[in-house]
Amino acid sequence: MRKTKSMSKHFLHMHELELNDKGEDCKDNCSICKQPISESNFYHCNLCPEKIRIHEYSCSEIPLQLDHHPIHPLHIFFLSEKVRRTNFCHACGGNCYGGFAYKCVDSAFILDVNCALLTKNNNNKQQYHQQKKKIQFQFQQPQLPNHPHPLILCYKDKNLTYKCTCCSLTIDGDCLYVCLQCKGLLHHSCAEMPWKIEHPFHSSHSLFLQSRSGFYDREFICSLCCQRRDGFAYHCHKCKFVVDVHCACLKPARQTQIQQFTHFHPLVLCHNKDNLPYTCYACLLPLEDSIYFCPECGVLLHKKCANLPQESSNTSFTLSTLFPSTTID
């Protein structure tokens, strides 16, 4: 009979933790990093009434103290579970409440566990096993030409998932950029995103890139697709026009509007060169190479969905169900 691996009285928890390494799909989140357990191995507590789940890697191995972290190298961090609702990570801008966080002993600087596990080199796994309680980092601060703030290049922990604060998509690859002024983790491409643009769907004013990190409500309504989005956005300083970074890539493929479709309003054909990660407003399927955009309704459509009949003879369904703000004559 196989002996179950356990971890006795780790500083993360008061009780003995038992390892589940059966590869079962777990729907709970890790108590340390707040990310889904999924099919990863995890430790759990059989004594606590609440569900205590901790990733075997890397959350069960996190150090109690961090020295010379690349994001804040001058001071020492200590791990704490006393996190308030008003505590936001100074690296990614996310709310630290509900999990553990590293707090600077000499300032109000805070890092959530995921950002604390970012390193300046790609052998962070070896560092954990060598030092156990402390990790030593080297510090360097590069800057990309199109970003107005200093950027810190860091390597990800391979066992955790990192989401770009700018575009809200998962960051693939080994490394990412941290901007402390934007409070964001960034793709290389997002770090080079222009700070000021002129957009054809708002030609009267320039648009400026703005982060919403550190706000309680990081969501906003995009003025083009009319959907709730988070992440960075391009704002007009003279009016309330705001567009998410994906819809900001929508550019008309031709100057004239297309009116031969059965949709109520003229549509603008746009090419999806940047693989817009959104779905068609009508059928909810991923958008393809060509996107038909209705500035009046604020919706993105496939060509076939733009050609839907205004009313179906088989059912009581009408296009006014999809676009309730518009009536059929």
Automatic annotation (TrEMBL):
Q: What keywords sit in the KW lines?
A: Repeat
Q: Where is the DC1 domain?
A: 68-116, 146-191, 200-248, 261-306
One Pfam match: C1_2
**PANTHER family associated with the record:** CYSTEINE_HISTIDINE-RICH C1 DOMAIN FAMILY PROTEIN (PTHR46288:SF27), PHORBOL-ESTER/DAG-TYPE DOMAIN-CONTAINING PROTEIN (PTHR46288)
Full protein name: DC1 domain-containing protein
The organism is Camellia sinensis var. sinensis
